[in-house]
Amino acid sequence: MEVGIVGLPGVGKSTLFQALTGQVVEAFAEKTNVGMANVPDPRLGRIAEYVTTRKVIPATLKLVDIPGVPVGGDTKKLNRFLEQIRQVDAICHVVRCFDPGTGAPAPASDIEKMETELVLADLVVAESAREKATRNARSGEREAKERLALLEKLVTHLEEGKAVATETEWTDAEAALIRSYGLITAKPIVYVANVAEEADPAVADAVSKHADAVGSVAVPLCARLEAELAELDEADRGEMLESLGLAEPAIGPLARAAHRVLGLTTFYTAGDKEVRAWTIPLGAVAPEAAGAIHSDIQRGFIRAECYGVDDLFELHSEKAIREAGRLRSEGKHYEMQEGDVVHFLFNV
Q1: What is the pairing mode between strands 60-65 and 2-6?
Q2: pLDDT of 73 above 70
Q3: Do the Cβ atoms of 4 and 90 come closer than 8 Å?
Q4: Are 328 and 307 in contact (CB under 8 A)?
Q5: What are the CA-CA distances from residue 143 to residues 133, 204, 237 (Å)?
Q6: What is the bridge-based pairing of β-strands 55-57 and 33-38?
Q7: Which of 103, 114, 240, 248 is the most exposed place for a label (fewest CB within 10 A)?
Q8: Topology of domain 1-41+59-98+188-263, per CATH?
Q9: Residues 332, 334, 338, 343: what is their CA dihedral angle, to the nearest 10 degrees?
Q10: 24 CB-side CA count, 13 A
């Protein structure tokens, strides 16, 4: 899963990217940066307390720092910006909620500017598809007529300035067809309210209200502070967090928000070589989870031996879990559950 970090110029996107990935990048550069962010998960450390292992490996998020939306009518740059957003699975929209000395923040206005560009880009795609569908519908084929009817509905929705994802009444068939067009505003989105250290809560609240209105989630954070925290060793970071009254760095709530809007769930593998967290789509079945580890395990899947992570925390060992009858043997139709600890049996 790739999450694209977007926003107007000067909102702190690259600072946030640096805080989350540890990569030093140049602000205001017209360059796309790609990096991986570890997803904090307190359950991992607890699993390693009860399963002797050599390594503990967290799940990761792939982040793409996309240059700020061009201003001034540069069509070439705008098209390049839009094409980069089309390539990611989800969007992290960073909104300026601090005053850099050039003007007070206007989060509602900034969100509107950004999302208007994205809606207009989708409208161009939808109108082009409608023109083609109109020609095809002249054949009288039912499928062609149904496609045209959907595209008429879609164009009207976008003309009203609404993102595709804000419509909750799409049928499954309509949603599948819409996905085939790669529309930007159909992608899941998380909002980041980038605040000053001494923040006015009302400014970030404007971002939260917008997120609530479109069925998303907003995470308030100070990207500059998070970047400073990321440079510290673990002990110093803990002291600084405590002095600031923060429970954890921002990657925690941001990653959980991303999981929510992306529809992801976490499972674990635990053995002497490593204890590791993996992310998969909600509703994935056991062979698909096996494929997240390696395609050979999915291809040769026999069964999955599973238990819940809470069983381990209660009973303290896999041996005790087995003796208590809580170790489950699941087949290829088993739908993975949040917090499953799994051993995959396979043959290739």
Answers
A1: parallel
A2: no
A3: yes
A4: yes
A5: 10, 46, 58
A6: unpaired
A7: 103
A8: Rossmann fold (3.40.50)
A9: -50
A10: 2
pTM above 0.90?
no
For residue 267, what are the β-bridge partners?
278
- Taking only the tens place, the pLDDT of each residue in 229-283 is 988 998 999 899 999 888 888 888 888 888 888 889 999 999 999 999 999 999 9
CA 121 distance to own-chain centroid? 21
Bridge-partner residues for 3, per DSSP? 63, 90
Nearest to 69 by CA among 5, 25, 123: 5
**Is the domain covering 105-187 a CATH 1.10.150.300 domain?**
yes
Q: Rounded to an integer, what distance in angstroms lies between the CA atom of residue 48 and that of residue 56? A: 7
Residue with tokens 């700020």: 68
Q: Which of 88, 59, 90 is nearest to 279 (CA)?
A: 59
Sign of CA dihedral 273, 274, 278, 283: positive
Q: Sign of torsion, CA 293 298 304 307?
A: positive
From CA 225, how far away is CA 13, in angstroms rounded? 13
CA distances in angstroms from 200 to 40, 222, 257, listed in the order given: 28, 12, 22
Domain ranges across the chain? 1-41+59-98+188-263, 105-187, 283-346
- What is the rounded distance in angstroms from the CA atom of residue 195 to the CA atom of residue 94? 10
Lowest mean pLDDT among 122-126, 195-199, 318-322: 195-199
In CATH, which of 3.40.50.150, 3.40.1350.10, 3.10.20.30, 3.40.1060.10 is domain 283-346? 3.10.20.30
Name the phi and psi angles at 140, rounded to 5: 85, 0
Strands 301-308 and 189-195, how do they pair? unpaired
Which regions of the chain does DSSP assign to beta strands (E)? Answer: 2-6, 33-38, 55-57, 60-65, 90-97, 189-195, 217-221, 264-270, 274-281, 301-308, 328-330, 340-346
